Amino acid sequence: MPGNSSSPTGIGAPDTQNLHYSFDAGVVHFVYMSTETDFTQGSDQYNFIKADLERVNQSRTPFIVFQSHRPMYTSSNEVKDTVHREQMIEHLERLFVKHNVTLALWGHIHRYERFCPMKNYQCLNTSLSFVYPGAPAHVVMGMAGQDYQPSWEPRPDHPDVPIFPQPERSMYRSGEFGYTKLIATREKMTLMYIGNHDGQVHDMVEIFSASVHDNSTTDKLVVAVPKNAWLYMEIAGGVMLALLLGFVAGFSVRRKRETARWTPAGNEES
């Protein structure tokens, strides 16, 4: 996840002179932005994101993943981040919806939390497997290993901290350390949250490509039918019926003839 550190990543990402960039990886287009600099409408970052999303070829990359640091949606409602969240919803969410962003990944909160696909605080789908509904699902994934923020649930090591209630739009959240795995094919994208303590998948969501689903032959089967098709079908049906009746009549006549020629060998008692 993009962080608020200026340390080089060493994995080929652009240097810190440019905190907004994008690239394609397989069937996914990734877009990165900094929440620590201006992203409101008219800013350099906003203009970059808008132009970048407009250029995406979704026939080649049917999925778009947006990543940044401070989350647009979270149930850890720290007052200090309220302005950031409201500005992102006001300025960025409309771009996400307009240009079919599939998934938005965030850090900052040292927990894992997955939200349903969101549009202006409204949840568009609550299932674990769905066709892209027109807005991105949001996932906070800051649970790599540092634990210093208030938890969502009471724990023995800090039982007196406030508990942030879990809203209905929050599909799953956990205070356990772990990592995520993202897998994408042309048909669907799958995100899994795996716990460090047991190596098991604790949360998973599948998002099917809307374009692939719309073009699926299983959903839309178009068959070209000649203008005289019904006439041909009626003639063919009549011929088949005549053949069937002829077979039955022939079989019945043959059976009667065989019965008439049959003579018992004997029926008397000795």
UniProtKB/TrEMBL annotation:
Residues 41-112 form the Calcineurin-like phosphoesterase domain. Residues 135-203 form the Purple acid phosphatase C-terminal domain. Keywords: Glycoprotein, Membrane, Transmembrane, Transmembrane helix. One of its GO terms (molecular function) is hydrolase activity. CDD domains: MPP_PAPs. Pfam families: Metallophos, Metallophos_C. Gene3D superfamilies: 3.60.21.10. The chain crosses the membrane at residues 229-251. Coiled coil: none annotated. This is Calcineurin-like phosphoesterase domain-containing protein.
